Amino acid sequence: MSPLKMNVKLAKKEKQGSVPTSSISKTKRKHKPSRQREKPYSCGVCASSFSRKSHLLEHMKTHTGDKPHSCEVCGSSFSQKSYLLQHVRTHTGEKPYSCEVCNLSFTYKSNMTKHKRTHTGEKPFCCELCDSSFSQKSHLLQHIRTHTGEKPHSCEVCGTTFTSKSNMSKHMRIHTGDKPYSCEICDTSFTLKSNMLSHMRTHTGETPYSCKVCGLSFTWRSSLLEHRRTQHGEKRFSCETCGSTFSQKSYLLQHERAHNGQKPFSCGVCSSAFSQKSYLSQHMRTHTREKPHSCEFCNASFTNRTTMLRHRRTHTGEKPFSCDVCGASFTRKPGMLQHRRIHTGEKPYSCEICDSSFTWKSNMLAHMRTHAREKPYSCEVCCSSFIQKSTMLAHMRTHAGEKPYSCEICQSCFSHKSHLLQHRRTHMGEKPYSCKVCGCAFTDKSNICEHIQLEALN
Asked: What are the residues whose beta carbons fall under 8 Å from the beta carbon of 438, sequence distance 6 or more?
């Protein structure tokens, strides 16, 4: 006899007074665990199984699309009554589930369960490939796509694909121009909430990122990371081939591809291949013309984050790269490295014709034109041509009458910076150019050149 029929029979006998209540309760206690283990009702569509027929019938509605339960307020319909009851709370504002730790309340029990993990640190969802663990199943599913390369969410405008729906929704704002996050102080609006929160620190002066070594604090995490690398030499991972060191293992792996020539990331549009995934992502924007990185100060947009961070320093005045000799600071690392050559005397750029060497590449290229007699920069007014663009711009001021360089002592104005420097020497009495023959000294180079020519004639 089945447990269900046995219960019915015992219930009838209890009414007649022939069976004690304890017998039924014992039968129920024996029967309940077996019912929890048994799932005799199976779905013919997806093979899900259930312990009760009513649960199977409710489940079948997800396949048939049947939604018999309707909301009286907004007309939304649901396949199960429990879903309707949960939905009604969005209208009533009811939040029956409370956190025992911080007393926050929630509309749904599942949200309260997820929230509790922020207190317990519990991460029950584990990745079978790399052992990473997550507090929510949705986060695990998104993470797995980093292994499989799956990007199921596509942009309808440009076709760019994403691993998560939320990232695709954020991307869509580039096309729609939607900026839902506004600063309460200056009303500047932003595409991303993270950008708005970063911007708020410019008003509050908050510097939440601190260096554990020297105690300096920074407004942005990126600035702290740059500080660690440049000031404390935080590089733990070494390349076995050339000995280069890196602050992160991922950077080392990317660097090693430069030795083995591996380029695993290919463009599906033009078949270009890249050693790093980030390079491919940046390259794809040349096809889509996407500029996802925005400046929170002026809303200028950029194709890559590095360029945006450099641009942002023009607003903040931040100079994270310092010279270890004289302490001069710079907004960009290349500027600091070039500056160091002043102290070291290094001149890495040499002329192939006369072996002259130069501190900067631009000076070497300008010098090469003196051999080729190339003058690519022409004046639009008088058609005079020049080797360097800066010389041409300075020449243009003679036509415009512009004199942007002024002497702080006598207020005399000059069209060229070099003319101002020569003029200053008349106040200071400085004469840096001297004749090796007679020892006469001069304030500017042209005067000593004339003097040497006269000495040669005599």
From this structure: 455
